[in-house]
Design brief:
Length: about 400
């Protein structure tokens, strides 16, 4: 297999010299855990104190990792990426809300992005987070089979109605819909809801995608049991496969509550688990669709090899690669230039509301061994290449 991910000229073809320098500067900062901690604390303080920092945030970290403050603001980025064959997934990245009105607003925004996707070839998917539609604690209580109060039951009915409305709309508009995974303690309730939507709307093909976080050691068994139910009941399975984004939080809670951590024992075990899930889905690709959400080059190469070995067209619509905007451009743009299906997650929302997402992104990068140094090495290589031109 040709090592296509080292081509920095393709990877950064859309970046000006100034944008390249900014990216290098940002990843230099992210590489330092103390700086990330200090920066996070200062940013949180500035936002809570209503200090005028939005302009600075917008010009630096926001513009690197986000598409814009609203869906229309994203279109220039969407169109620009699509000139290189890279599609977009508009991701309304407002996190940590608790009010019914805010959940309704997230629903309306998701419906709007489905409409956007219907009209634009460059946007093949819509997406939402379960906690965008309801409180995390409510999902947890439902997943634990606890008795709900009448008020909580009413809330949960609202959550189910939001899921139903967005999935029904996606089905009617023929737009694929990705539903993200979150903390393990709320995930059982979300999984049950998503499975219900698959059962209903994936009868002819995959419309609804769930998400498996493969740093959880139980997820491959879950996939296999879901497959048994899908075969028995006649529906297709769509899965976004990721490694996971809540490791420190997961380990900390497991320790606090005295239960075994749901996280794999090592990075290698996570990688093996991820690759095993891809392999399992490829063995059953006649009834499944994969969105391989990974920044890992080795896993990406393995999937390319599987496509070749199984004589599957490189642009088969059942197999997509996905990365986050502002990261792993060497994977995204080189895959797209070679004809594979690629979509970047393009977060958007008001600067202040998106800050929790951006902070999580920075913290995640500092904790993923090798990710930030790889970004820095690629950026450095491209800067030097341009100097020699």
């Amino acid at each position: 297999m040709d090592k296509i991910f080292n081509n920095t000229e393709v990877a950064f073809s859309l970046k000006s010299d100034t944008e390249l320098d900014r990216a290098y500067f940002l990843f230099k900062l992210i590489a330092s855990q103390p700086l990330v901690r200090i920066g996070t604390a200062v940013t949180n303080f500035a936002i809570k104190a209503h200090l005028p920092v939005e302009g600075l945030i917008r010009a630096t970290v926001f513009d690197h990792f986000c598409g814009g403050v609203n869906e229309l603001d994203c279109l220039s980025v969407v169109d620009k990426m699509y000139t290189k064959g890279v599609s977009s997934v508009l991701d309304y990245s407002v996190e940590g809300k608790e009010e019914e009105a805010q959940f309704d607003a997230a629903l309306e925004m998701t419906l709007k992005t489905i409409e956007f996707a219907k009209k634009r070839q460059a946007i093949p998917f819509a997406v939402f987070k379960p906690t965008g539609f309801g409180r995390l604690d409510l999902y947890t209580k439902v997943g634990e089979k606890s008795t709900l109060t009448s008020a909580e039951q009413s809330e949960w009915n609202n959550v189910k109605n939001r899921f139903e409305k967005v999935c029904k709309t996606a089905h009617e508009k023929d737009v694929a819909l990705l539903i993200d995974a979150e903390e393990s303690w709320m995930q059982d309730a979300a999984d049950d809801l998503v499975e219900e939507m698959m059962r209903k709307y994936n009868k002819e093909k995959v419309i609804v995608f769930s998400t498996l976080q493969m740093y959880r050691w139980d997820r491959l068994d879950y996939l296999k049991s879901l497959h048994e139910r899908a075969k028995a009941e006649g529906f297709y399975i769509g899965m976004k496969l990721v490694r996971g984004a809540y490791m420190e939080k997961e380990n900390k809670r497991a320790e606090e509550f005295g239960y075994p951590t749901p996280i794999c024992a090592s990075k290698q075990a996570t990688d093996d688990n991820y690759n095993a899930a891809v392999d399992y889905m490829m063995q059953h690709i006649d009834k499944m669709a994969i969105f391989a959400g990974t920044h890992n080059e080795e896993s990406s190469y393995k999937l390319l090899e599987m496509l070749k070995a199984n004589n599957i067209a490189i642009n088969d619509n059942r197999i997509w690669f996905g990365q986050l905007y502002g990261m792993s451009d060497n994977i995204s743009y080189n895959l797209a230039s070679n004809g594979y299906n690629v979509a970047k997650y393009l977060p958007f929302g008001p600067v202040r509301d998106v800050m929790p997402y951006l902070i999580r992104r920075a913290e995640e990068n500092t904790s993923v061994a090798g990710q930030t140094s790889r970004e820095l090495n690629l950026l450095k290589t491209e800067r030097e290449r341009r100097k020699l031109k």
